Amino acid sequence: MHNNAAPMRNVGIFRKLKDHIATFAAALAAILVLAPLVSVFAYLVYKGIGSINIEFLTHTPQPVGELGGGMANAIVGSGLILGIASLIGVPLGIGAGVYLAEYGRNRYSNYVRFTADVLNGVPSIVIGIAVYSLVVLRQGHFSAFSGGIALAIMMVPTIARTTEEMLLMVPLSVREAALGLGIPQWRSTVSISLRTAASGVITGVMLAFARVAGETAPLLFTAFGNQFWSLKPNQPTAALPLQIFTYAISPFDEWHRQAWAGALVLIALIVGTVAIVRLVASRGMMRHSA
Question: Are 269 and 206 in contact (CB under 8 A)?
Answer without folding.
Answer: no
